[in-house]
Amino acid sequence: MIRITYDPSAPVTAVNLPGSKSVAARAYVLNAIFNGWFMLTNIPDCDDTSDLGFALFKGEEEYDNPDAVYNLGSGATSLRFFLAYMASQPLFNGIIDCSPSLRRRPLAPLVDALRQAGADIEYLEEEGRPPLRVRGRALNGDGVKLAPGVSSQFESAMMMASLIWDSPYVPQSAPGVSRPYVEMTARMIEEMRRMVDENDNGFTMLYKIETDWSAASYFYELALIRPVRRFTLPGLRPPGESLQGDSACVDIFGRLGVDSEFDGEGNLVICGDEARIRALAASAEAVVMDMRDTPDLVPALAAGLCMAGIRFRFEGVAHLRFKECDRSAALVAELAKAGFVLEAGDSTLAWSGLRCEAQSEPAYASHGDHRMVMALAMTAAALGPVTIDDDEPVAKSFPDFFDKAGCAGLRSQEVRSSVSQQHSIDFGEYEC
């Protein structure tokens, strides 16, 4: 369990964010497809990225071992990309598995599409779910159709793997959710292919993983909750240059009164405008946003808007039910502990201003979800001390989140308690 407090008088220093795990996952697979021509830098030190890198390396070493098990942990992106790539490797014969929580998330549409292309994939236990026996084959994308509307990761997995097929998979024109992630894949394929084609000297090329805009969203949330304070986030590429759809933080939080400025030295400085935020909070009208393209921003936005007292209605969020947890249901349950009555529909999430009795020190559940933990931690800046039952899920994407949050004024203590004993470790003084 971790206890979080906020110190408004604490000095604020630059917050160094990790590399993007979405970019890193694509870079790992594309580097394998392009025969290892790249040296990847700024790789995030998180579970999802590490599990994928290890599985790819192990795959090269153990193609001839049919008993080898490749466990992709809880990384849905990693699992889906690895499955499509290995199903396309004629020498591969192995078992692909993942964590129990990830087994519950959709996979059958990708398996069905790969089978259309000629893949040999067998469910070993439950139909539609890992573990899988995969015997790699030369595949062909002619006429392959992917069921729309479940995950952009399926589309991206097919796009990358089919670079080594007899004929490529042709992406569908309008994926149902998270379209920017499909566009990210297309841009990275084009960029890395161009670099390989232009590599006349045959030397290994550097490819730098972008700093993570999804991680930035929690500090935007903090700027919304604590206007006037300025937070500096180095290394982010501006919208328009960035591969990441979550660079939409600039526009989305800008609508809510959080200003963004790139200082010309590689730093993004964000600051909430108190007058604009208060005006939105005073309005009886809800802020309406379509979050179909940026679902990973929803936890930070929902928590931040409630803390700022701004009514909202998110549309296009049906896919939240298929994340690490049912995020719509989890946000409803956890923010009720802080006194906010949210309503979740089939594809909507809203707060109309209705309040309920709040816990004096909200005791949140993590739901095993890294984005829930990070979004809920920031509410301490509005509520006073909060606790979260498990801080370990942040290792999935941002292992030193609580260290970095200390740079912005949050103080975190890991608490192991019984009725008679507590042991605490202060995470608030680490280098940022």
Q: How would you characterize this protein structure?
A:
With 432 residues, the protein is of the alpha+beta class. It is built from 15 helices and 18 strands. The protein has helices spanning 21-33, 47-61, 76-87, 100-103, 108-116, 152-161, 179-197, 213-225, 249-255, 274-282, 298-308, 327-337, 370-377, 380-383, 401-406, and strands spanning 2-6, 38-41, 69-71, 93-97, 120-123, 132-135, 205-208, 230-234, 258-262, 267-272, 287-290, 312-315, 340-344, 348-355, 363-364, 386-388, 410-417, 422-426. The strands form 5 sheets. It has a 5-stranded mixed β-sheet. Strands 3-4-6-5 form a 4-stranded mixed β-sheet, covered by helices on one side. A 4-stranded mixed β-sheet has the order 11-12-14-13. The radius of gyration is 22 Å and the shape is globular.
